Amino acid sequence: PAAAKFEIPQMSEQQRREVIESSSFLDFVAHATHLAAKALEVAERGLNIRKNYAEDE
Amino acid sequence: MAKVGVKAQGVDEMLQHLQQFKGVVGTMVVNKDGVPLKSSFPDEKRAIEISTELTPLCIKAKEMCSHMVSDELQFVQFQTKKHEIMVVADPNYFFIVIQNPSAA
């Protein structure tokens, strides 16, 4: 059987604002931004290596 | 205390910082149920589409890590021919970055 479609629950604007102002959210975003920036740097380095390799070939 | 400095910049600035990387299409933060909390995608409908596709996959990946290695998922990366999709996971949130590295 086909998997049930994933449903995103509703959240009021007030609830959303409370979450994005919470320290757990801000801490997570700070941590995640740092991690994502590292991953983007690695991805860019990998792309450059692949590009150089393709040019050498 | 670097963390406090980053916090003071605000979430929008943090997301903006990632947009400066080459080819970043968009970034978003959703809660564990997939509700978009912050998004750099101009179109809200697109943000919901992405969350609807990615959240159940990430929930499954979290469960898998928990069952298979009794550990907590931290990061998932999908590599396609043209895009990289990165997800930073936490017990309460997912942070999603979509990049098209070959885009100028």
What report would you give on this structure?
- The complex is a heterodimer of chains A (57) and B (104).
- Chain A is 74% helix and 0% strand.
- Chain A has two helices and no strands.
- By secondary structure, chain A is mostly helical.
- Chain B is built from three helices and five strands; from the N terminus they run ααββαβββ.
- In chain B, β3 and β4 form a beta hairpin.
What proportion strand of chain A? Answer: under 5%
- Distance from N terminus to C terminus of chain B (CA atoms, Å) equals 35 Å
Helical content of chain A, roughly?
Answer: over 70%
| Residue share in β-strands of chain B | 25-35%
Which terms summarize this structure?
heterodimer; A: mainly alpha; 2 helices; B: 104 residues; alpha+beta; 3 helices; 29% strand
Which helices and strands appear, and what pairs or packs with what?
The complex is a heterodimer of chains A (57) and B (104).
Chain A: H1 13-20, H2 23-56
Chain B: H1 2-9, H2 11-19, E1 24-31, E2 36-39, H3 44-69, E3 75-79, E4 84-89, E5 93-99
Antiparallel strand pairs in B: 1-2, 1-5, 3-4, 4-5
Provide a brief overview of the structure.
Chain A is mainly alpha-helical and 57 residues long. Chain A has two helices and no strands. The termini of chain A are far apart.
